[in-house]
Design a protein that fits this description.
elongated, alpha+beta, 6-stranded antiparallel sheet, 29% helix
């Protein structure tokens, strides 16, 4: 595979809402550029960038895929070229558009230098359109739009454009007009060159250049003037030329547009029918002529320290700098092992180089660097600054880490991924699954930054947290297909706790006389409540050796074990102080076990008097949604026993903060989606424990009591045994 220099590379993130045709558009671009022998279709599962079984089955993109098109600038008819123009390489990142998988989009879009936002011509701006615009803003990327599915029923250029301009401002400007509408869509008017491009549906994607149809001439002239005026606005020399001539020559217009796009002043709009391959060569020409190369973006900001605090240093994206690469994605392939996708941020990377992973301070040998075309790889000898590639079998490197020349350490900024919003309890189906679960999940965690896995120390459940129900289901399907681990999903148990509200004083006496040694131990304890979060305190108040020193820890252990098993409903008892102040012992019959049992009996006696109560975890919840949902959302949180602590509005959106019990939040993710048509998101983290209202506490206790009784009897058998 030929290696391309920095100026001849374009890194383009193909982003947009689900079902706007991103994968199909990438497939058409690759076919038009001659990279694939036939036009792959999502409906047939034959596209280059959706190759995963789950993606083919669900017909949606779940993981970002990397592909590339080699394309050359169209030759000018008026001047015979001395030599054919050089080809350039366009790296395409085909990203997910469903909001459940949007974290994958955010973490891989960091590798792009510009974003092409695909919009459904019938629907206009949708939820994820706004989200990906925000990501591109965060990464400071130039943007352009493609109105796709122009050939579908109800597709409307005017309506879709109006929706884009309303949401994203007057910088959104069309550089093409449609020829024909809905089923009759067969080409575009190129408003830079002022020519018509006509296509054969399902053809090779290369338009036939003709004069603009008479019916469209007037519209094209008006739109062309609006475009020229907007381009000239930011450039005094162009403005002067525009006033003098009334128009701009094509070359000047392109140069002005390129600068305006790079300055994020203009966001051009193009048109296509990805399924029938209409308009694709014009998009490739735009990516080549207008979108920036990595060098045009100048330099990358990075840090001197791995915590990304302190001094920021700028590293130019050029071959002459020391080599550094940034790992933006990891794939755990069951056959090839770990595949790391990376971007060369500076310098030239030679095949078989050994680099230092600065985050882990370890050496990595990059054998067989490859450029990816979907899932197929071809080797490349050297990669210039700005290029994207992949390498297999790195030992330690994971997503978000920087590797490079050991004499010039830098740390490139990783993507910031929001915390997971939904948690499920997962149960392995068999013992064999339980043994395999650790390694399999570990591999999936490497490739999915939005996933968390852990075990709840109290409920002993395995917990899997992700960005939505569909996300978790896909992970479970992956575990089954790739690693043959079968798991079932359940809503997680709420980790309730118990505590006391009053004081108590009681005796625990364990006396048993059998043949030979008996068992004897008596202890007296006081219980008193402590503030939230204090846990368990044990105080030794024994005077005059009523219980010898060596058996006092046994009493504490008896109380601790009994508190762990709970009193009301089998949840741990917390936030209390137990003071041991008196007791009796017997020289022969007393033992560790006897005092442990006495401690546990004294604790239970005390609990009866100490007004036991149930505690539940309360979460700090933040909900983000468009303004119009504010009232409904606040009402809904209040109905979930939530206390609203504040709300703030900004740019048409609102952030609501509230404290809500976890028990009320288990079904929130799905309800928020339906209440806000998928435009709302939320995050939550643990805040504190608080008392459960009496009527609810009775229900929880009734639901859990049977389990608690079973556990008690088991423990009792265990003691006497």
């Amino acid at each position: 595979m030929k290696s391309y220099n920095t100026e001849s590379i374009r890194n383009v993130g193909i982003v947009g809402h689900g079902d706007t045709g991103k994968t199909q558009l990438v497939s058409s671009l690759l076919f038009t550029a001659g990279m694939t022998p036939r036009l792959g279709k999502v409906t047939e599962g034959s596209t280059v960038t959706d190759w995963d079984d789950e993606e083919i089955a669900r017909k949606i993109t779940i993981n970002t895929a990397l592909a590339y098109a080699e394309w050359q600038a169209p030759a000018r008819a008026e001047k015979a070229p001395e030599k054919a123009p050089e080809k350039i390489k366009i790296n395409l990142l085909d990203t997910p558009g469903y909001s459940t998988f949007i974290n994958e989009t955010k973490s891989s879009l960091i590798a792009a230098d510009a974003s092409l936002i695909v919009v459904d011509a019938a629907a206009g701006v949708q939820v994820v359109t706004e989200k990906v615009w925000d990501y591109a803003t965060e990464y400071d990327q130039p943007r352009a739009f493609v109105l796709n599915w122009m050939d579908r029923e109800l597709a409307s250029f005017d309506r879709a454009l109006e929706s884009l301009q309303r949401v994203f401002g007057r910088g959104v400007v069309p550089i093409e007009l449609p020829i024909g509408s809905e089923k009759g869509f067969r080409g575009v008017v190129d408003m830079i060159a002022m020519k018509a491009l006509l296509y054969t549906p399902d053809g090779d994607g290369k338009g036939k250049i003709e004069e603009i149809p008479a019916a469209l001439a007037e519209d094209a002239k008006t739109a062309h003037e609006a475009l020229v005026e907007l381009v000239a606005e930011g450039d005094d020399a162009l403005m002067q030329e525009f006033f003098d001539e009334g128009t701009l020559p094509v070359d000047d217009l392109k140069k002005g547009l390129r600068e305006a796009v790079l300055a994020k002043r203009i966001f051009p709009v193009m048109l296509s029918s990805a399924l029938h391959n209409v308009g694709t060569d014009a998009i490739l020409n735009f990516l080549l002529e207008i979108f920036p190369s990595p060098a045009a973006r100048g330099k990358a900001s990075c840090h001197k320290t791995p915590d990304h605090k302190g001094e920021i240093i700028e590293r130019k994206i050029v071959d002459s700098e020391p080599v550094s690469i940034f790992a933006f994605k990891t794939v755990a392939d069951p056959f090839a092992g770990r595949i790391t996708y990376f971007k060369v941020m500076s310098g030239v990377l030679k095949n078989d180089a050994t680099l230092t992973n600065f985050n882990r301070n370890s050496l990595e040998r990059l054998q067989h660097t490859q450029v990816m075309q979907g899932k197929s790889a071809s080797e490349v000898n050297d990669l210039h600054a700005g290029d994207l590639a992949a390498v297999a079998k790195l030992k330690d490197t994971t997503t978000g880490e920087t590797l490079g020349d050991k004499n010039a350490p830098v740390y490139h900024l990783p993507a910031r991924i929001p915390e997971p919003s939904i948690t499920f309890a997962v149960e392995p189906k068999t013992r064999a699954d339980e043994d395999r679960i650790g390694t399999a999940i570990h591999k999936i965690l490497e490739e999915d930054l939005a996933l968390r896995f852990g075990r709840d120390p109290q409920t002993k459940e395995f917990l899997l947290s992700g960005a939505g129900q569909q996300h978790i289901e896909v992970v479970v399907a992956k575990l089954r297909k790739r690693y043959h681990v079968e798991m079932t999903l359940k809503p997680p148990k709420v980790p309730y706790r118990e505590t006391i509200r009053g004081k108590a004083d009681a005796e625990g006496k364990h006396k048993k006389q059998t043949g030979g040694h008996g068992q004897f131990g008596v202890c007296r304890i006081k219980l008193e409540p402590l503030p939230r979060g204090a846990g368990f305190e044990f105080v030794d108040d024994i005077f005059g050796g009523a219980i010898p020193k060596n058996w006092i820890p046994s009493v504490e252990k008896g109380i601790r074990d009994s508190a762990e098993r709970g009193f009301l409903a089998g949840f741990p008892v917390v936030d209390f102080r137990a003071s041991l102040y008196d007791g009796k012992y017997h020289d022969v019959d007393s033992s560790d076990m006897a005092f442990k049992i006495a401690g546990s009996l004294a604790f239970k006696e005390c609990m009866k008097q100490a007004r036991p109560a149930l505690l539940e975890p309360v979460m700090h919840v933040e909900v983000y949604a468009p303004d119009q949902y504010s009232g409904d959302l606040m009402g809904n949180l209040s109905s979930r026993r939530g206390r609203i602590s504040g709300s703030e509005s900004r740019a048409g959106g609102v952030t609501i903060k509230a404290q809500v019990p976890l028990a009320e939040m288990l079904s929130y993710a799905n309800e928020l989606t339906s209440m806000t048509q998928g435009r709302g998101t939320y995050s939550m983290e643990f805040s504190h424990y608080d008392f459960v209202p009496a009527e609810l506490a009775d229900k929880v206790i009734a639901a859990h009591k049977p389990h608690a009784v079973e556990e008690e009897t088991e423990a009792a058998h265990h003691h006497t045994a």
